[in-house]
Amino acid sequence: MSLKRIFPLFLLVILSCTLMTYQSNKGVITLFRFVSPSLNEVNALFHSISSSFQEPFRKVMLRDEENKKLKDEIGKLKLDQQRYRDVFFENQRLRKILSLKEKERRYVATARIISKGWDRWANTLVIDKGKDHEITKDMAVITPAGLIGKVSLVNDHYAYVLLITDINFSASVKIQETRKEAIVSGTGSGSCVLKYIPQDESLKEGDVLVTSGFDDLFPPEIPVGLISRISKKGSGIFQHVEVTPFQEMTKLDEVVVIKR
Question: Do 159 and 175 sit in the same domain of this protein?
Answer without folding.
Answer: no
